[in-house]
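G., before I forget:
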Amino acid sequence: MRYIFSLLLLVSILFCEAKVITLCNQCEIKELKQAIAVSKPFDTLLIKKGIYTCMNETINKPLTVIGENRPALDGQLKDEVLVVMSDHVNIIGIEIRNSKCGSMKDYSGLRVFKSKDVKIEDCVLFNTYFGIYLSDSKHILVKNCKSKGANYGNSDTGNGIHLWKCDSVQIEDCHLEGHRDGIYLEFAKHCFIQNNYCEKNFRYGVHFMFSDNDIYENNTFTNNGTGVAVMYSKGVHMFNNKFQNNWGDASYGLLLKDMSNGIINGNSFENNTIGVTMEGGTNMRFEKNNFTKNGYAMKVMANCRLDTFVRNNFAGNTFDASTNGELKENLFENNYWDKYEGYDLNRDKVGDIPYRPVSLYSVLVEQMPYAVMLMRSFTIDILNRAEKNIPSIVPETFVDDKPLMKMISQK
Amino acid sequence: MLKIAKYVVYDILRSKVLLAYTLFLLLVSLALFSLETDGAKSVVSLLSIVLIIVPLISVVFTTTYFYNAYEFIELLVAQPLGRNTILLGEFLGVAFSMMAAFLIGVGVPMLVYSPNAMGGVLLLSGGGLTLSFISIAFFSSVAMRDKAKGIGMSLLLWFYFAVIYDAIVLGILFSFSDYPLEKAVIALASLNPIDMARIMVLMKLDISALMGFTGAVYKQFFGSSFGLVYTLGIMLVWIILPLAVSVRIFKKKNL
């Protein structure tokens, strides 16, 4: 039986001969439309260097589109540029530019619709409303792409990579800049987002909505309007990402809202107005993260339950933590806090007295924000110290019973 | 005036107290900078020294010096010299020596370890505080004839500005927290040189925390170049005003 199969396979390989159709400004075939029309499934379209007008062209059969020296497909601001509506499509090494901008329809540079096994590699998107728009698709790979948001007007720009109802999408080594959201996921499951760099996006670097069981790691999110937001999702794991320089009156390194069962491990939060804000988080685990030089390292709202914070470093933050009520059923243990002033008599590297990361002053600022002007005042120091000795206002349960004496090296 | 200032400086240098102060500042700043690997953190620790210790020493030193030099001042008054010349000469002398002590004690380590804008602002605010508290001390020593009373008043003023004032501000904020208080807080901060100095450094130090909702308002105001001019202007007022008042009192005073 096996031999017959192998034989059949061999024969099919011998007879199935994929053609290469070349596209260039001087060739017989000058437009992508023509090329797609004459091609057969599993052919290769080779596009030579040049600029090609391409308005809402649909790839409706399994094709491999390869750009030589990165040719440009230009939508001339009139429509979408390229649409993929077939399985097994590969798009490699092309530039897509000038899609239309509009609020009635989400115009995009490259749209993948109801497709499986699509690969998009080494592409550059430029001046597109949405960059890559994946909807109802499965098993997509987006790798090594670059997208810079259009400048149609103030905040009028779409997302860099937009996922809608997708499954098993892999996004790697992409650079996303100047969009509304760098990467946006809605109803996207089992996605893997790795080694991307999102900067200067108007809203979030990455934005998750209702997207469960995703992993993102080794990404850098810097200078985004309001940081990274992960909302209404289950089982999102974040490993070794960098959240940096998100400054502004509503800026977070990471915003978690109504999340559950996530693991946040090995990330660094640096120079943000708020490192992490968590609202309605259940069963989240923060481990081995570095919080440095943030305004607030974290704001954990009182509706968070069963969360664990272990072996994190908190150093150089103006406030280590803030909350808006009694925090219950959360565990803080074995973290390093640079503001800890306890001692370690038995030399087990764990402080002998508990540390309360919420200071009286941070409670005060939470209640009356104008008090921020009194920061670092001697009077405030005295009040903080008095409160530390006899806690009455700060939440009693927000406490690290086993604070570490030395900073943990996270690698 | 400058001649009087020169004699005052010689006199102060002879007493060694100023030398001790300089050494103290130098040691503290060197210790802070070498113990802490992160430059920003040592600036934070230095900030509390600048905000508390520097005004205290300025006030106490100036007041004691003034009363100790009382006979010299009486002698000068007997000479054909204007009273404001005498007092301003005294002020210049004390101010020069205290500023020198501060700049050597804090400025030199700062230049070596953390020569950046934050350090510069800290020096600026420390210098402003030194001068304004010398001026305040002149006011209380001219106003009070008795030495103990004078020193007491100086200390009280220091305590008021360093501790009590912020507590009052906190109280005001607490009782009026339903009202929009942005402008009021800026006005309140202007009424205290220590608060002004603190805010100046804060703008460089805690920018990320200040970027929060209300902080942004202050950032916009104090962080702008107009804000810097405003803070420096208010500091200047806090140097000139008590001095002017003390000159006025000294002119009419029955010595």
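Residues 2-15 of chain A form the longest helix (14 residues). The two ends of chain A are 52 Å apart (CA to CA).

More on Monday.
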